[in-house]
NADH-dependent dehydrogenase (Blastopirellula marina DSM 3645), 445 residues
Amino acid sequence: MFMNRKTSRRHFVKQLGLAGAALALPAASYSRVLGANEKLRVASVGTGGKGWSDLLGVAASPAVEVVALCNIDSSADHLGRAAERYPSALTYADYRKMLDKSDDIDGVIVSTPDFMHAPISLSAMALGKHIFCQKPLTHTVKEARQMQLAAQKQKLVTQMCNQIQSHSAYRTAVALVHAGQIGKVLEVHSWQGGQPSWPRNIDRPAGSDPVPTTVAWDLWQGVAPRRPYKTGIYHPFNWRGWQDYGTGQLGDFGCHILDPVFKSLELTAPLELVAEAPPLKPETWTDKATVSYVFPGTERTAGDTIRVTWYDAAGVQPPAEALSSLPKSAELPKAGSILIGEKGSLIIPHVAMPKLYLKGEETEAKYDTVAGVDHYVQWADACRGEDKTTSTFDYSVPLTETVLLGTVAIRFPGQTLKWDAAKMTIPGFSQAEPFLSKEYPKGWM
Ligand SMILES: NC(=O)c1ccc[n+]([C@@H]2O[C@H](COP(=O)([O-])OP(=O)(O)OC[C@H]3O[C@@H](n4cnc5c(N)ncnc54)[C@H](O)[C@@H]3O)[C@@H](O)[C@H]2O)c1
């Protein structure tokens, strides 16, 4: 059956209650095959904040033409400076309107707050657009799985923007583990000891403030429940601390800090996890949490399973007993991971070159470094068939699901959650399952 663009997008988005099932995608929505001399025509949604550097990063490729810019805020820091930089690009406040006229768009950069990544990306994928999407890929676990299914079904080029994966530091760390420098890995500890500036552990402020004339507050709220506008509380940046919009400190940093752990150990879905955290306020995330995951062992790990423990709190570090394999001189970064192996330990700071300690040695071992690559241009090149991305949705969805499962566990401190990744269920504790997905408001999409 023929479907027009608007109908096909809506039809696709309606599949959103069916996580885990194959998505029924409309025909005639596959991506265009680009000729050798053709430019990749790119749209950017969320052109302020990190979106500004995402846009500049992708457009650094001479083979990219920026054809559309979308932002719910028309002020200089958000839509304004992007429109000035790319004056021939069409501008929009509403990404749905942009996609309804998207015949000349090949790929979409999605740099909005976390809770809008999935509706925007899924809508664009339904129309056959390649996707470069910020981390964490989605707000809920089931949205993440749908992103993977959609990308597979549509055969799209995808990249999550956990760009440090492409830096020399993380690439070198992965290569050291793969070269067997620390032997098979016994356990991993990852932490973020930095203090976020965004709101945590607070209640919703009373009242409302006038919405700036440049801001379309209803469009910003998108698929989230409606609430009054408050200056400086949600838009921009501070949405991170609110459960309706962001994913807390684990969601903000997990897809970066756990990335070299995932890549080097070739982890997939956890078998179970348990969190320690103070009780959540009704609407915000906590200011500290520990999440302990058990994954199936891999070729890179010593046992049948491997434990990976995440810690976040101001100044937090892994417990002393976890560090007993390190020489006394070893200094830990504020954020990063330590992989403890049978032949040595590897500290992977976030973001700096790794430190390798071979068993019994008091000083750092020397190693060869691996050069970095350009995470942004790699996607543009891959869309044109000239490279491959490394944070494809086949890779970044299991990583995102792991991170987001941690945010579910934080709601149930002390409760071990088993995870059935194939069925997307939490056997024996179904009370947690409603937090794996969310309803989009009726009629909004
Ligand atoms: N990879 C990294 O290192 C990194 C760093 C910072 C942020 N991020 C990610 O980037 C994303 C944005 O974070 P931020 O700090 O820039 O947030 P922000 O709130 O500062 O900026 C978001 C931008 O998107 C616009 N926007 C919001 N909703 C929109 C919508 N529905 N349609 C179009 N435009 C919309 C806003 O006006 C703003 O310009 C988040 O997912 C965040 O996790 C990643």
In short: The chain is about 25% helix and 15% strand. The CA atoms of residues 270 and 295 lie 4 Å apart. The pocket of nicotinamide-adenine-dinucleotide is lined by residues 45-51, 70-73, 78, 95, 111-114, 116, 134-135, 161, 163, 219-220, 222, 235-237, 252 (CB under 6 Å). Confidence is low (pLDDT under 50) at residues 16-28.
